[in-house]
Specification:
The chain is α/β, with parallel strands linked by helices and 190 residues long. The protein contains 9 helices and 5 strands, in the order βαβαααβαβαααβα. The mean pLDDT is 86.
């Protein structure tokens, strides 16, 4: 099963991806996690990405696409994967389609986790306080900028994937188990 999870920052994509990983035995390909790993390792790409992420901006399509393409070639992706954080733009979605075509693959579904932006800000600020502010992007100013970027650049993917017949929308403001159930029902899983 090959899935894309869409939704604004803090909507629960990472939480739901982990549940789906356990359920379907396929890996989560989180650009955020991959970028944070590169930042923590202080690789040249990681240092470049850190400056971009700390500003609340998005890393270039070229860097992200390369990371994703290489990761899809790993053996644990043979039965599918869950893309979390990619694609973020129409250009990335088109690049993903070409990438999958070259690999002889296709997406099974794109799940949009809908969430209220004001509640998300409160959720993320609370997460930062509880974790001691472990992530530089977990502050209200950066989060609001990320939400604005999401609305401008990523939200158009909803129409893009609806036109391709792949979009499935669920209410991300429901309790975690209810969101999981809605996702499984939407993608035809059990």
């Amino acid at each position: 099963m090959r899935l894309v999870l869409l939704g604004p920052p803090g909507a629960g994509k990472g939480t739901q991806a982990q549940i789906l990983v356990q359920t379907y035995g396929i890996p989560q390909l989180s650009t955020g996690d991959m970028l944070r790993a590169a930042i923590a390792a202080q690789t040249p790409m990681g240092l470049e990405a850190k400056a971009i992420v700390d500003r609340g901006d998005l890393v270039s399509d070229e860097i992200v696409s390369g990371i994703i393409s290489d990761r899809m070639d790993e053996p644990d992706c043979a039965n599918g994967f869950i893309l979390d954080g990619f694609p973020r733009t129409i250009a990335q979605a088109e690049a993903l389609n070409h990438m999958l075509d070259r690999k002889g693959l296709h997406l099974d579904a794109v799940v949009e986790i809908k969430a209220d932006p004001d509640i998300l800000v409160k959720r993320i600020v609370k997460r930062a306080q509880e974790s001691g502010g472990a992530r530089a992007d977990d502050n209200e100013e950066v989060l609001r900028k990320r939400l604005d970027v999401y609305v401008q650049q990523t939200a158009p993917l909803v129409s893009f994937y609806a036109n391709e017949g792949l979009l499935r929308s669920v209410d991300g403001m429901a309790p975690i188990d209810d969101v999981t159930g809605a996702i499984k029902a939407a993608i035809g899983g059990s």
